[in-house]
Structure formats: structure tokens, C-alpha cells
Amino acid sequence: MSKAEFVVVANRLPVDRSGDGEGDDAWRRSPGGLVTALEPVMQSEDGAWVGWAGGADLTLDPFEFDGMLLVPVPLSADEVELYYEGMSNDTFWPLYHDVISEPRYRRVWWDAYVKVNRRFAEAAAGAAEQGATVWVQDYQLQLVPAMLREIRPDLTIGYFHHIPFPAYGLYSQLPWRRQVLEGLLGADVVGFQRVADAGNFARAVRRVFHYQTKATGIEVPQADGTTRVALAKAFPISIDTASYVELAQRPDIRARAAEIRESLGNPRKILLGVDRLDYTKGIQHRLKAFGELLEDGRLAVEDVTLVQVASPSRERVAAYIQLRDEIELKVGRINGDYDTMGHTAIRYLHQGFPREEMVALFLAADVMLVTALRDGMNLVAKEYVATRADNRGVLVLSEFAGAADELASAIRVNPHDIDGLKDAIMRAVEMPAGEQGRRMRAMRRKVIENDVAAWSKSFLTALRGAKKASQ
Ligand code: G6P
User: Is 139 exposed, middle or buried (0-12, 13-18, 19+ CB in 10 A)?
Assistant: First the structure.
């Protein structure tokens, strides 16, 4: 296998299998900005991407796709259950999202997590050229940086954490809190979404290891008595803004937006929620607030429709199965109480859609509701803003989403405060065009300036700097 100067390691490969196609059309590029952001680096440096192809017991040889070398890491059915559904999504996910759902700590899950992280580290070590740069992504692979450094001390290693890092009071519940910090500290740069996340991580390191943390980085003692510096810093991720702006200008997508409005009975206002079906997203809080506004008579079903896209996610994890039942019960009740023959209160779609349809929905929506209880960033908020070239539309944004740090002109909400959320929705529905324009313009400027290419560039620049400083 040829070796790469630049290697990305992520739980998932940036492709999905399309049906049972063979050869070149067996794979389709998966949506998501990360691969778009990294494409220029991937092409210019002969990059490789190490990741799981989805599914169980699938052993595939490395293959070329869109100018990248993709290196599939196999997972057995047991490992999907223990490492992916268990440790990653029933322990780390709820713990790192402030225990919205109760994390389960199971030793067999941890053992599988260690084993699978080692497999990813070995695959990355095998794909990397001497002195290469390896960029590890997200909470499924927190042990990879240190494991990789042990096998390949010649590499420059970056890690980016896409989800929140919790305060020590919660993090300290983790029975393997030392091992996870050790794993992360194997990186030269540990990137986070918010300044608060980087601060929580540095505090955890101080509490657990008593290492010195300075502005220049955390001093990590080495076995040979020297110290290495690991930089922990915020690099807020973004979207491929230009591609959203472009899609939003396409006549067929604009026509589709009009068609969506029409098929909803041309309500005066369309409210929109777009989330993976996940308990971190605050979908129930949003439904409660909307249902009460109908009940209070502050909104009428003839005037306003809520479109809620909840894309299927992690469907074998108990908390997700239960959440789906709860949401669908609530939607059914609200629609049962308020629908008329011609109008629906909530158009609920438990489906995933292609980007084009999402952009049409963004264009059709007067108000975008992002009411996450905790969210690393929330890229949907940025996508909505990117598509609104007419500077119309209102973003209601939870202060618990990372995006709130940058999108200060959104209507900010605490989704736990249902009365506050109701007032925010009313304010959004009634906001005059002039105020919409002022707010949207300021937010669009941010999203256009700070796109995902700028994000990867700033991370990789910091990584090069950190490596130089440590030599
Ligand atoms: C979040 C995580 C990603 C993850 C994605 C989808 O955005 O930060 O690492 O890939 O959710 O979840 P899934 O479990 O389907 O990969």
C-alpha cells in the first residue's frame, strides 16, 4: 500500500455504500463538510482516510476514491454493539452532553473501545509516510493519539473533538478518566469547538495529573524525563458556505422551496427544525413550546406550520428508541388536537434528505429553530444562515449550542425555559423585515468569513506550529 503524507482518522469513512453497486459506483460521497474541507489537502498531499465503512464484519481492501486513498477498518457485529453503540454512544455521548441521558459505564464496552482504538491506530500507522501528519477526529477515537505516538513517534498528530467536553464535576464520573486524558494528550494539538470545552479539558488534566497548563500548551512529562507540549485550543468548525450559497441560488431549488410552501397550504409563516433524532437536540422542548402557543391561541394552525425533520440515528441504542416514541407521541397529540382538513400543525419527517432538499427547506422556512440542550457546534444553524442571501429569516438559537458563540445576532434561547422559548418564537414570527435583515447580515458575514476551509487551515497551521516548537 502506498503511504500518505496526510492521514485523517475518523470513525466513519467519508463515503456511503450505494446499493449493491460494484467498482466505482459502489460508493457515494457522504454529505458533511469535513471531507469537503479536507479535499484540497487530501489532493495536494496524497491523503489517506482511515475509517469504518459502516456495517459489520466487512473486510475491504484500501481503495482510491475521488483522489483519496480510503483505508477501511473492519468492525465485527460485537464491536459495533460494544464499541460504537455502547461505549461511544451510550457512555461518552451522554456523559459529554452533560448527562442529559444517563451514561452507562460497562467494562466490556471499555475493553472493546480500547481494542478498536488500537486497530484504528495501527491502520493509521500503516498508512502514514515517515514524518507525516495524522489528524484524528472525535470522541470515538480518543485513545488513538497516544497509541499512535507510541507506534510512530515520528508523526505529527492532531486531534479534533467535535462534541462538547464537560466540566470536571461530570467528567470525573468516567471510570477511565485517566486513560482517556492520556489518550488525548498523545496529540500535539487537541482542538475543541468552544473556548469553554478547551478550558474544561485543561482543568481535567490539572485535576487528574497536576500537569502545568500554560497559554502555550500543557506540559506532558515523558518516560525519558523530558516534557512534550500539547496545545489545547478552540477551533470552531464550520460549513462549506460557498456550496450552500450556490445551491440556494439554483432555480430548481428555489422552485422546490415555493412548492414546499404551496404543499403546506401556503401558511403565513413556516417554522423549521432539522436534527438527527437525538436527545441532545431539545426536540421535545421545541414541540412543547409550539404546542402551548397553539393551545394559548397565540399561534393558529391556519397561519403557522412547524416542519420537523428528525433524521434516523443510532436506532439500536435504547435511549434513542425511547426518544423516538416520546417525540412521535407528542407530535401525534399536537396534530390530533389542532390539525384541520387543510392545515397541519406539525409536518414530521423521520427521514434523511439530500442537501438539495434541505436547502429548499431552509429557503421555505421563515424561522429556524435550533433548541439543543447541548451541542458541540450545530452546523444546521450555519447552513440556514448561509442559504439566506436575501437576508430574510430568523434564527432562534440555543445558548447551549457551540454556534451561539459566533452567531450572536440570533435570537438566543435557553430551551429549558419554556415560557422564554415561547416568547422567542413569537418574537421570531413577528419580527419586522428590517430587523431580520440587520441580524441575518451580521450572521452571514461570520459564516462566509469563517468557513470550513478556514477552520481546517487554522487547525493545521497550529499543528505545524506546535510541532516546530516541540522540536
Ligand atoms: C455527531 C458526531 C460525529 C458523528 C455524527 C453522526 O456529529 O460528532 O462524530 O459521525 O454525529 O453520528 P453517527 O453515530 O451516525 O456517526
Answer: buried
